[in-house]
Design a protein that fits this description.
The structure is a single chain. This protein has about 80 residues and is an alpha+beta fold. It has one domain. It has a 4-stranded mixed sheet with strand order 2-1-4-3, with no helix packed on it. It starts with 9 loop residues before the first strand and ends with a helix. The mean pLDDT is about 85.
Length: about 80
């Protein structure tokens, strides 16, 4: 493996800004912000808009937005 061509792989904290959910993982991303984690250490903070705590698929709040009735037309056409 060549030296000096790979980014630094380190511990970082990802924080969902909509739900204030945070988790510690490893990443090559860096940040100017940092946060003190539960273990007392300070880690770079990466803010994200969507995580598993706020995504509709994972929370079960998924809704179908159908303004023109396409879903109903499909169900009528292929109903048996």
């Amino acid at each position: 493996m060549k030296t000096g061509i790979h980014p630094e792989y380190r511990d970082v904290v990802f924080q969902d800004v909509t739900t204030d959910f945070s988790f510690l993982t490893r990443s090559t991303l860096g940040s100017k912000e940092s946060i003190k984690w539960e273990d007392g250490n300070e880690y770079p903070l990466i803010k994200v808009d969507i995580s598993s705590a706020s995504h509709p698929f994972y929370t079960g709040k998924h809704k179908i937005m159908d303004t023109s009735g396409r879903v109903d037309k499909f169900r009528k056409r292929y109903a048996k």
